[in-house]
């Protein structure tokens, strides 16, 4: 395998305001799950663009438990994020809420891991503004015809970026 | 920086599929309430309620000049959402790249732990 095989993330925005990222990692899913859930591992990679560190990484890994991350840049700029664990099913599934504070709406984050030949296919779904809002939206029975409308809205959004 | 309640309000307004369909319709051009309601199997008051939510979120506006007060799409809040999504996408894409490298480190450590 060449390194390029795995180094691409596919992003899609299927329906009801979710962003879905899929990516293959060259490691068994138990290792990937640990990287996502263990405070010993998280600050080593969940860092976004270069130049940030994560000096605070508090994890209470149980359903209803909270997590709290703080990122810091050299110039002292800080960014904070916190949330609650909703579902913990090692090594396949992790569901958390996520609040970024400031202008960011709360999202629900679902990480699903599937293993194939020692590699892990990750599906990372980010839903907003909340599961409740999304479920409410899903329950209105207006799905028919939405595919087309969404495609048009997405095309329109794309022209604004 | 945009106010938090503004972006939350935009998201709340966009969370409903009927309202997204209304916005998609208005992306094609201004329309009267009757025209907006036509594709939906719902009462006039129900459609008006959705329009009020969209209006409060600043996603649509009424054209006061025309007598039939057509609704038109306002792009600014949608642009904020698109920017938000783009920042979010960049954060995770950069993190996944770092995870690639870190998973290698984790597995090397595991192997050396096993050897001990």
Explain what this protein looks like in three dimensions:
The complex is a heterodimer of chains A (161) and B (116). Chain A is 20% helix and 40% strand. Chain A is of the alpha+beta class. Chain A is globular, with a radius of gyration of 17 Å. Helix content of chain B is 68%, strand content 5%. Chain B contains five helices and two strands; from the N terminus they run ααααββα. In chain B, helix 1 (4-14) runs antiparallel to helix 4 and helix 1 (4-14) packs across helix 5. The termini of chain B are far apart. The model of chain B has no long low-confidence stretch (mean pLDDT 82). At the A-B interface, strand 2, helix 1, helix 2 and helix 3 of A face helix 1, helix 2 and helix 5 of B.
Low confidence ranges of chain A: 1-6, 133-161
Order of helices and strands of chain A: EEHEEEEEEHH
- CA-based shape of chain B: elongated
Q: How many structural domains are formed by the residues of chain B?
A: 1
CATH architecture of chain A: 2-Layer Sandwich
CATH topology-level fold name of chain A: Alpha-D-Glucose-1,6-Bisphosphate, Chain A, domain 4
**Major sheet strand order of chain B:** 1-2
Measured between the Cα atoms of the first and last residue of chain B, the distance is 53 Å
**Rg of chain B to the nearest angstrom?**
23 Å
**What is the molecular shape of chain A?**
globular
Oligomerization category of the chains in this entry: heterodimer
Question: How are the strands of the largest sheet of chain A arranged?
Answer: 1-2-8-7-6-5-4-3
Average pLDDT of chain B, to the nearest integer?
82
Helix percentage range of chain A: 10-25%
Q: Into which percentage range does the β-strand content of chain B fall? A: 5-15%
CATH class of chain A: Alpha Beta
Q: What's the number of domains of chain A?
A: 1
Q: Separation of termini of chain A? A: 36 Å
Backbone structural class of chain B = mainly alpha
